[in-house]
Amino acid sequence: MGVRKVLGSRRRQLVLQFLAESLLLTLFSAVCSFILPAFNPAKYSCVSTRATQATLSKMRSVWKKISPATPFTYSFLDEKFDSFYKEQQRWSRIISWAGGISVLLACLGLFGLAYRISIRLWIFVATGIVALMITLITVSVQAIKVAMANPVKSLRTE
To answer: How many alpha carbons lie under 13 Å from residue 66 in its C-beta half-sphere?
Structure first.
């Protein structure tokens, strides 16, 4: 709901945008290239790959007539596929390294190389005393505020 308000999009548009940019996109193979306007999947256009430059120049001129203040931007599906797969490969390497490091650390713990420290009893006692003092001060301050307050004002606001 918050995303729709920020983007000014309808639910259908957000769902279509999600599907176009999700993993389902990798399963889709296309012969043509796509022009993908931001957050407006209903206006995707298919362009022939044989006369790309001529088609783009025609589309650019039509775009300037329709919306001269908005810049003409486009992207091709093969470029989207390429960037998507590069990103997936990068994350695969990162996750593999993180998994390897975590297995290594787990093995170090299994072999008894974990460090041990001793905590003295007075640390627990001191922590308990400090927590008790904070509680007593907080409750005392609130009790004093309630005792000093005028009961008539309290009854009027309730």
So the answer is: 8
Task: Using a cut of 0.90, tell me whether the model's pTM lies above it.
Answer: no
> For residue 146, what are the CA distances in angstroms to 33, 137, 143, 149?
72, 14, 5, 5
The total of other beta-carbon atoms located within 10 Å of residue 66's CB is: 9
How far is Cα 133 from Cα 22, in angstroms, rounded to an integer? 54
Which residue is listed with tokens 């329709």? 66
Q: What is the residue-level pLDDT of the chain in tens, covering all 158 positions?
A: 334 444 555 666 666 666 566 544 554 444 334 444 444 555 556 666 666 788 888 888 888 888 888 888 877 777 888 888 898 899 899 999 999 999 888 888 777 665 677 889 999 999 999 999 999 999 999 999 988 888 887 777 76
Backbone angles phi, psi at 34, to 5 degrees: -120, 150
Residues 6+ apart with CB under 8 A from 46: 32, 33, 34
Q: Six-digit token pair at 21?
A: 């940019």
Q: Which pair of tokens denotes residue 74? A: 């486009």
For residue 2, the Cα-to-chain-centroid distance in whole angstroms is 14
The two tokens of residue 131 are: 């927590």
Instruction: Give the DSSP H/E element, type plus range, for residue 46.
Output: strand 45-47
